[in-house]
Amino acid sequence: MSQNNMSDMAVEIKDISKVYSKGGGDHFTAVDNVNLCVRKGEVFGFLGSNGAGKTTTIKMMCGLVTPTTGRILLNGCDVALARGEAMRQIGVVLEGTRNIYWPLTAWQNIMYFGKLKGCSSKNIKERGEALLKELGLWNRRNDIVRHFSRGMLQRTAIACALVADPPILILDEPTLGLDVEATEIMKALLKRLVQDYEKTVLITSHQLNVVQELCERVAIMHKGKIIADKNLDELLSLFGQDYYQIKINGALNGPLSDLSASEENGVTVLTGRISSPKRLYSLLEQIRKRGMTLLSVSPLEPDLEEVFLKLVKDERGISNYDDNQNHV
Amino acid sequence: MMIIKTMFNETYKGLLIAWNYKFETVLQLLMMGIVFIGIGFITGGGQLSPKQLTYTLIGYALWLYSSIVISSMCRDLMGEAQAGTLEQIFMSPVPVSLILIGRSFSTLITSTINIVLFTMVMIWGLNITLSLQWEGLAIFIITMAGLFGFGFVIAGATLVFKRVGELAGLTANALLFLNGSMLPVERFPTWLALFAKTLPTTQGVILLRDNLINMQSLYGLWQDGSLLVLFSQSLVYFLGGLLCFTWCVRRAKVQGTLGYY
Questions:
Q1: Which end of chain B has fewer CB within 10 Å, C or N?
Q2: What domains, with CATH codes, occur in chain A?
């Protein structure tokens, strides 16, 4: 990577590993030699199953866990060597809603966390007012947050994370436990943060539809390693070539391969993965031999959830898929 | 400048939270009063003697500080870790040791409000005479520096070992008997007296009694070496506590246990 490109990076994770001692000489590798970059102004999705190592990676980014090896730069500031400056680059809402003081009001939380980040009262007041208005909390600013709904608590935590105007926002499970309406509000807010305020946003979420809607690039972590790190479109299209929908006139007489079948209004719809053109031709030949009328054959784009499950299930990583594509 | 801002920020937050728990605070004050009267009866041989109560009040007030500081450094820190706000504090650009000092100052202010209120009610209600002197304030401040140093050790241990809550409670209660609140240290067996004098607040209780009851001046206490002992002890506790806390934070970050309980 050139020096010029390096300056475009909001987050640079270089050869990071985290090994925990389990006692008795045993060790557990939570994060295994991870390299990752997030460009400035990008919305980046960081995915992984429970225990994949993504929370440990995020906590290492936030200076809450010390890496065993490697280094992390936030807008060029080394988390280990220039902690104070690195911390000024980020606003973080960790998993769960209690990133703020429940006995205090929304405004008191804003004032406290703003000062904790070293901002002046004048700046906090100006920015706090703008943020609370933007987040629809201005009329409730003097209410004790203990009485807030989960969505309001999450929005208050985001306001506190943004009060010092950090260029990078890290959100661990921002929509966890939110109802549909609150999730929509959160998604709209995150879109505005990137479009209007030019923030770099890093999101982890188990709600992959949220990530698919918001993120430009996605990294998938599994067993401490990054198994995919691609633009969302690339990632989806990579698997899109494998998925097909075949429509046949009439009912299907007997199963056909491992494709799923459904029938509606006299039309049978077959969907599933067909790994090569040769396999597709073979299936079409079988349909012809059974005397069924083929209505259409169309490639399908899988959603992120399918891609995620496939990658994690196979544990092979994206490079293997790239190789497979080259062979076809 | 940064430390003053941090102190103010932490104190303001501490007072706001304390105000939210005012009902609990009133109950706590009531409890303090009941326990003090009980101790007064024991030390007065079944009677509430104002002279004996004056003597006991100084030790008891300092024990209350110990109890609040130890509880604040342990229970509050655990509570914040469970709540998730502790990790937010550790993500501040302000050095964590400065935040710890800021929080200690906040604890000092909030506990002083409670203890002064309690002391005034006791003085008025039980006819206790106590001549407060500015010199006593110097002894008090030095004693508090040592006590907070001890609190830093508790705070650090809480981050690393997690299950120190019971031990902290035990330590706070043991200090009531060992810092001379109930029984003067001079009446302890020699080995116990030696041990008791190494604990935070014990030397402070002795010196405050000498100053406020026996009317010994600060200069006199300096000349007989007892003030120097208190000063050295507090310095060791404060600096040692800060070092210990810093080490424990580093350890907790390596173990990845900063926010887990």
A1: N
A2: 3-231 (3.40.50.300), 237-327 (3.30.70)
The complex's ipTM? 0.84
CB B151 within 8 Å of CB B73: yes
Would the CB atoms of B21 and A115 count as touching at under 8 Å?
Answer: no
Q: How far is CA B103 from CA A107, A157, B159, in A?
A: 20, 22, 16
In the three-class reduction of DSSP (H, G, I as helix; E, B as strand; rest coil), residue A204 is classed as strand
Secondary structure of A130-187 as H, E, C letters:
HHHHHCCCHHHCCCEHHHCCHHHHHHHHHHHHHCCCCCEEEEECCCCCCCHHHHHHHH
Inter-chain residue contact A117 with B92, CB threshold 8 Å: yes
**β-pair type (A217-222, A43-48):** parallel
Residues 45-104 of chain B with CB under 8 A from chain A are 83-85, 87-95, 99
Nearest to B153 by CA among B144, B143, B164: B164
Sheet holding A77-78, edge to edge: A26-39, A9-23, A69-74, A77-78
Q: Which two tokens stand for residue A108?
A: 């008191």
Is any Cβ of chain B less than 8 angstroms from the Cβ of A145? no
Contact A99 B2 (CB under 8 A): no
- CA dist B46 and B214 (Å) reads 24
- Among B85, B245, B92, CA closest to B158: B245
Q: Give CB contacts under 8 A, 24+ apart, made by A82-88.
A: A83/B93, A84/B93, A84/B94, A84/B95, A85/B93, A87/A62, A87/A63, A87/A117, A87/B91, A87/B92, A87/B93, A88/A117, A88/A118, A88/A164, A88/A166, A88/B93
Q: Report chain B residues whose CB lies below 8 A from the CB of A20.
A: 255-256
Alpha helices, DSSP H, located in A206-262 = 208-214, 232-240
A165 touching B (Cβ < 8 Å):
no
Please tell me the distance in Å from A88's CA to the nearest CA on chain B.
6
B253 and A104 within 8 Å at the Cβ level: the answer is no
Query: What pLDDT, in 10s, does the model give residues A74-131?
Result: 999 999 999 999 999 999 998 765 789 999 999 999 999 999 998 999 999 999 999 8
pLDDT for residue B161: 85
